[in-house]
Specification:
Elements lengths: L17 E13 L3 E6 L4 E6 L6 H8 L6 E10 L6 E12 L13 H6 L1 H4 L3 H23 L3 E2 L5 E2 L11 E3 L5 E4 L4 H11 L1 E9 L12 E10 L3 H22 L1 H6 L5 H8 L3 E4 H10 L12 H9 L5 E7 L16 E9 L4 E9 L3 H10 L4 H12 L5 E7 H9 L20
Parallel strand pairs: 3-5, 6-10, 12-13
Antiparallel strand pairs: 1-2, 1-4, 2-3, 4-5, 7-9, 8-9, 10-11, 11-16, 13-14, 14-15, 15-16
Helix pairs in contact: 4-6, 4-13, 6-8, 11-12
């Protein structure tokens, strides 16, 4: 007689019924009774195997199961008397795939070892929790923009030119046309789309040949980039704040089990939902950093340490705006009040996390952009198509990029961005 196959996440609804589970053995404790911790990707459950209730050969099999063996388990769903969690009182077990000498044991392992075994490390509870939260954030981002009237406009990955400076480009030969570069940002392709769709976004992988090892930098990361016509710096900060709150809200609502596995303190996330984000000009932020002991000077970009110092001192996300034009990208609109400044804004996450969003208002004057392109020694002919946006119905416009992995790192409170991607790419990491 066949019993219904059930996913662990639905087990509660089957209390008292006989069901079959399919999954992998996380752990077995063997005494007279045998306790199998089973996971199937949808959740975790304890399977109880006793000599009285289980078939003799299943009881015997339970005694020799190893970590990560794949099995099916059939039995009655009952409720744990103390925790109230469902568990399976096993009648029969079958071995689907054996697992001999699984390398990641319950003891502590070094990160280098775990990274080399990333394809197996994905099975651990903590990685499961992080990547499910990542999934929820991706869905939240898409829902947010789709519901807000933005049209998805995919930017290309192979591009002829730089968006964020030429020092972090990955190149690849492109037939007879010379080099193509992996996209650093889809922004330049969103801007022409505005005159067609009004509000657009792209969401995909972006690449930077970051030569430094930090806990914030990947060489391949996902970025969502909204762009809005007839919009200014203020609109960037309003939209970015709404998006961030929406993302946090979705995780708090839908990923309680995962946050618990990560032992995430929920108070700072709830705080982010309930407050208006702080704002500070770059100039004020530099003053504040000096007070906090940084040796930064006006005109310098924040280092990782500066962001950490600043955001350890804040109890909520912070917008820093109006940066020195000198270290910002060529496309930024200058501040009409002080042309040394660019109308850019970065959102820094609290708890020491730092930049999660970078964006701002785009230069709408053709002549200004031409001067910038010359000043940055970019090749004008690579940007003619982009300049057309300023020739035919140029309007004020603005947008930003939110780095998915940075958002995951903060929301999960991870010490390093490497655990936020299924297969992270960093300096010195191209395996597996
Ligand atoms: O501040 P960035 O460089 O801005 C841009 O690329 C703009 N063109 C975006 C736009 O306005 N459409 O990058 C945006 C965000 C950062 O705030 C950060 O979250 C993330 O992308 N980011 C990285 N994440 C991981 N690893 C890296 N190396 C990253 N570089 C940027
Ligand atoms: Mg930035």
């Amino acid at each position: 007689m066949s019993t219904p196959i059930v996913e662990i996440r639905h087990l509660k609804q089957h209390a008292g019924e006989t069901v079959t589970l399919r999954g992998w053995v996380r752990n077995v404790r063997t005494s007279k009774m045998r306790f199998i911790e089973l996971r199937d990707g949808s959740g975790f459950v304890q399977c109880v195997v006793s000599a009285n209730d289980a078939e003799p050969e299943s009881y015997e099999l339970a005694g020799r199961l190893t970590q990560e063996a794949a099995i099916t388990a059939t039995g009655i769903v009952q409720t744990h008397p103390k925790t109230g969690a469902p568990e399976l009182l096993v009648k029969s077990l079958t071995l689907v795939g054996e697992s001999v000498d699984y390398p990641i044991t319950p003891k502590e392992h070094g990160t280098a070892f775990l990274m080399e075994n990333r394809h197996l490390w994905l099975r651990s509870k903590r990685q499961w929790a992080i990547l499910r939260i990542r999934h929820t954030l991706v869905k939240a981002i898409r829902d947010f923009f789709d519901e807000d009237g933005f049209t998805l406009l995919d930017s290309p990955i192979l591009t002829p030119s730089a968006c964020e400076g030429t020092s972090t480009l990955f190149g690849t030969p492109y037939f007879d046309e010379g080099m193509a570069f992996l996209s650093q940002s889809g922004q330049l392709y969103q801007e022409p789309g505005l005159a067609a769709f009004g509000k657009t976004y792209c969401f995909g992988p972006t690449f930077r040949a970051e030569k430094s090892k930090t806990r914030r930098h990947l060489t391949e990361f996902w970025m969502v980039e909204p762009e809005m016509a007839f919009a200014h710096l203020e609109d960037v900060m309003v939209l970015g704040e709404r998006l961030t709150k929406f993302m946090v809200q979705r995780v708090l609502e839908g990923r309680q089990e995962e946050l618990k596995i990560l032992e995430r303190d929920l108070a700072p996330l709830e705080q982010a939902l309930n407050v208006t984000f702080a704002r500070m000009t770059y100039t004020d932020a530099v003053e504040k950093l000096k007070e906090l002991g940084s040796d930064i000077n006006w005109g310098e970009d924040f280092g990782n340490d500066d962001e950490t110092i600043l955001m350890n001192a804040m109890d909520r996300p912070l917008w820093v705006h109006r940066f020195p034009k000198a270290f910002k990208a060529f496309y930024m609109e200058p501040d009409p009040i002080d042309p040394k400044l660019a109308l850019g804004a970065d959102l820094l996450a609290p708890e020491g996390y730092g930049e999660v969003i970078g964006g701002g208002e785009r230069a709408s004057s053709l002549q200004y952009l031409l001067d910038q392109i010359e000043h940055e020694q970019l090749d004008r002919k690579d940007y003619e198509w982009y300049l057309d946006v300023r020739k035919y119905g140029s309007v004020p416009h603005a947008g930003f990029g939110l780095g998915l992995e940075r958002a995951v790192a903060w929301i999960c409170k991870l010490p390093h961005v490497r655990e936020t991607a299924p297969y992270p790419r960093m300096l010195g990491t191209l395996k597996p």
